[in-house]
């Protein structure tokens, strides 16, 4: 197995949507699903542009399924070379994770037995995020033939809207299932045409009014008998016809520039910028080399390598690849949805996953991307203020599901309308999660300039919201009618995760206010004026933090997930799937666990993960054991957190099982829904489980700490982390560890297996494990 590639070795229409997700190419600016260029019955193609949302004829905002730049048809003597019109003799696709390139080779046979090979390569350029490239080559193997290649841009795109409620057990085949959905229209054509061989397709989102422009340039390989530029109401196409001799190859190189009116620093009109993008590309060789060089720079900072287990090494690099194509460090107005830019799942909305699960990866490998993701929360702060006002409170409350404006976009019902969601009303902890991310970024990077400018208004305005949202109960404060990360239990009071993180949030906001009063009084005065902060509000935050109750059983030290949780009916977990993950007990599902102690995903355990220094090892051990036995892991972010905390409390075997579940959630499709899009939180959780879990990596106020405990099948674990503006290369083994501090400046003291180690810049320092670890 090559740990740098993911391969499809045969054509199977039942697995096609799964590979469409896996083979997504992107660059943070956009993502394009790995559909066949010619599509097939049951295909679910999609290109998604970060930040391009629309709500026309949809109940909530959708991430728009934008014009398709891949669409290509090849005809040999009048027969379309596709998986249904011709016979597939062989098929192979390979995603090169190192360069972000998807390559394909399919051998077709016509009805008379004549054989043709179709080869393609595609990528979304990391060197120029406005550029996408496709190479198409066709070879005649047996006889002379007429070959036509038709390639262009398809602007007739629709989003999936709602699946009707069918009787239980109803299933549709791969060729019908997407046809059963209602559809939403979000784009209206505003013009198509060609000028000097370059085609342009323009459209506008109907409700949000964003202008999109695609420019198309097609270069031919071979001398055509005919070349025709064609335009339709919602499409542009270049059609080229060739006469092929046996063994001869012809093809096209396709360059597509994409621009929108919402692009940061947009400048010229979208159509002009899109045409300029394709004009500055010399040829595919130059574009490919620039793309490869950009990817090399990304991997040098972000690679997470396991030596000794190629399957795990592949899974980790697959996770990192999808994380790298999900973020755009140049755009602080967009964030990452729960399915990244790889599918329509969750309508492209942004959840707490970004701050809690994804941000650590970017924070320690791509700090510019981390900064941009936090910029999105500052950009949408006005929308968060509207959410708070809608709920009768001052300040700012971030929505459970966010899109372009920062207003609440969470649907109230399931996709078939049969189940009611209460997350939009009650899952308030996302606001504290954002504050946690702000403080974590400032701590790891040392970027006080960010903290005092964009970070402070977020902390202050959200702290103000919490003070109003808390209710008095005697001398204490409580948070009633909330929902914690668990999500199986709604309308609860004093969720431990929420209350504890809110207390932490209030304390941190007051601490930043105090620092600014001393270090940046003029800037604090400016914030106070713009936010209408009174001189006493910081003290109110501290008072609320002191009074806010966090449920704990005084007899045994267990953290009660919420008031009355210990009284819920205990329903034992008795069945597990082939991956060792629990099944729902008979008669239970996502909507029928309210009266039980069953947990969907980490709640208290997540709290132990985020604030490890706040809880003793004994407390973590007790709570992990108690809640692990009750958790069904019905969220893809669950296993990785249990892996990390499990390692902290000595449950190494369970940690390896949970790590595998997270690492292979998409490669093995172990939740059965990879076709909807990548589980990007699981990808980030997998990286965290490898580095923070098996690598024993922690970044604290006191500095970096490493206590590696590698699985027996791993020989070494290698990764890099950014700390206060410099990079540390880490090479961990079972009995030794090596560290290299890159960049000028003083030496750094880190803690390895509990002992301080001085690491001078640009030297490799080797540390031997103590005898207690080796034995």
From TrEMBL:
Keywords: Glycosidase, Glycosyltransferase, Hydrolase, Transferase
Signal peptide positions on this chain: none
Positions of the Glycoside hydrolase family 65 N-terminal domain: 8-262
Domain Glycoside hydrolase family 65 C-terminal intervals: 703-759
Domain Glycoside hydrolase family 65 central catalytic, residue spans: 317-688
InterPro entries recorded: 6-hairpin_glycosidase_sf (IPR008928), 6hp_glycosidase-like_sf (IPR012341), Gal_mutarotase_sf_dom (IPR011013), GH65_N (IPR037018), Glyco_hydro_65_C (IPR005194), Glyco_hydro_65_M (IPR005195), Glyco_hydro_65_N (IPR005196), Malt_Pase/Glycosyl_Hdrlase (IPR017045)
Family from the record: Belongs to the glycosyl hydrolase 65 family.
Protein name in the entry: Kojibiose phosphorylase
């Amino acid at each position: 197995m090559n740990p740098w590639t993911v391969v499809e070795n045969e054509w199977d229409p039942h697995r096609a949507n799964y590979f469409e997700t896996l083979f997504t190419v992107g660059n943070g600016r956009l993502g394009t699903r790995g559909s066949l260029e010619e599509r097939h019955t049951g295909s679910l193609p999609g290109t998604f542009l970060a930040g391009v949302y629309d709500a026309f004829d949809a109940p909530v905002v959708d991430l728009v399924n934008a014009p398709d730049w891949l669409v290509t048809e090849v005809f040999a003597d009048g027969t379309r070379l596709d998986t249904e019109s011709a016979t597939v003799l062989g098929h192979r696709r390979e995603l090169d994770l190192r360069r972000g390139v998807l390559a394909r080779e399919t051998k077709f046979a016509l009805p008379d037995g004549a054989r043709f090979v179709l080869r393609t390569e595609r990528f979304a350029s990391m060197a120029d995020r406005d550029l996408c490239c496709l190479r198409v080559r066709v070879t005649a193997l047996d006889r002379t033939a007429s070959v036509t290649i038709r390639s262009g841009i398809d602007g007739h795109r629709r989003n999936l809207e709602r699946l009707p409620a069918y009787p239980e057990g109803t299933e549709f085949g791969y060729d019908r299932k997407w046809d059963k959905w209602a559809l939403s229209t979000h784009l209206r054509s505003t013009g198509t045409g060609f000028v000097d061989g370059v085609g342009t397709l323009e459209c506008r989102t109907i409700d949000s009014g964003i202008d999109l422009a695609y420019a198309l340039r097609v270069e031919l390989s071979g001398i055509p008998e005919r070349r025709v530029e064609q335009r339709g109401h919602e499409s542009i196409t270049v059609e080229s016809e060739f006469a092929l001799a046996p063994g001869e190859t012809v093809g096209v190189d396709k360059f597509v520039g994409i621009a929108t009116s919402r692009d940061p620093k947009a400048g010229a009109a979208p159509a002009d910028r899109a045409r300029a993008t394709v004009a500055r590309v010399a040829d595919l060789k130059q574009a490919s080399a620039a793309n490869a060089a950009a990817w090399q720079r990304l991997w040098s900072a972000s690679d997470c390598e396991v030596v000794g287990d190629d399957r795990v090494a592949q899974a980790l690099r697959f996770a990192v690849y999808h994380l790298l194509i999900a973020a755009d460090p140049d755009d602080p107005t967009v964030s990452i949805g729960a399915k990244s830019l790889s599918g329509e799942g969750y309508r492209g909305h942004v959840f707490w996953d970004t701050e809690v699960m994804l941000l650590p990866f970017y924070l320690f490998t791509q700090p510019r991307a981390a900064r941009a993701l936090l910029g999105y929360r500052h950009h949408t702060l006005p929308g968060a203020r509207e959410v708070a006002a809608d709920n009768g409170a001052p300040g700012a409350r971030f929505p459970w599901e966010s899109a372009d404006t920062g207003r609440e976009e969470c649907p109230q019902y399931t996709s078939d309308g049969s189940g009611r969601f209460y997350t939009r009303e009650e899952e308030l902890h996302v606001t504290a999660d954002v504050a946690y991310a702000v403080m974590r970024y400032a701590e790891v990077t040392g970027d006080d300039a960010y903290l005092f400018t964009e970070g402070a208004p977020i902390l202050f305005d959200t702290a103000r919201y919490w003070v109003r949202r808390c209710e008095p109960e005697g001398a204490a404060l409580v948070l009633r009618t909330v929902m914690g990360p668990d999500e199986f239990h709604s309308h609860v009071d004093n969720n431990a995760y929420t209350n504890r993180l809110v207390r932490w949030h209030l304390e941190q906001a007051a601490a930043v206010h105090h620092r600014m009063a001393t270090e940046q009084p003029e800037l604090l005065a400016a914030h106070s004026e713009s936010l209408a902060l009174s001189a006493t509000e910081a003290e109110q935050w501290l008072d609320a933090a002191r009074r806010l109750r966090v449920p704990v059983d005084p007899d045994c030290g267990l953290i009660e997930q919420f008031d009355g949780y210990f009284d819920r009916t205990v329903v034992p977990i008795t069945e597990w799937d082939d991956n060792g993950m629990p099944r729902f007990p008979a008669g239970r599902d996502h909507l029928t666990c309210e009266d039980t102690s069953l947990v969907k995903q980490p709640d208290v355990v997540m709290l132990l993960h985020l604030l490890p220094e706040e809880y003793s090892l004994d407390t973590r051990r007790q709570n992990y054991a108690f809640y692990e036995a009750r958790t069904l892991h019905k969220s893809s972010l669950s296993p990785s957190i249990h892996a990390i905390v499990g390692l902290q409390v000595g449950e190494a075997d369970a940690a390896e099982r949970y790590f595998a579940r997270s690492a292979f959630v998409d490669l093995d499709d172990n939740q059965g829904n990879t076709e909807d899009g990548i589980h990007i939180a699981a990808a980030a959780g997998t990286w965290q489980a490898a580095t923070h879990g098996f690598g024993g990596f922690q970044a604290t106020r006191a500095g970096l700490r490493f206590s590696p405990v590698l699985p027996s099948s791993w020989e070494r674990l290698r990764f890099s982390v950014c700390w206060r503006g410099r990079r540390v290369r880490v090479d961990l083994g079972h009995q030794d560890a090596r560290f290299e501090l890159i960049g000028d400046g003083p030496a750094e003291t880190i803690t390895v297996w509990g002992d301080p180690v001085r690491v001078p810049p640009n030297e490799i320092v080797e540390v031997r494990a103590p005898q207690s670890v080796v034995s």
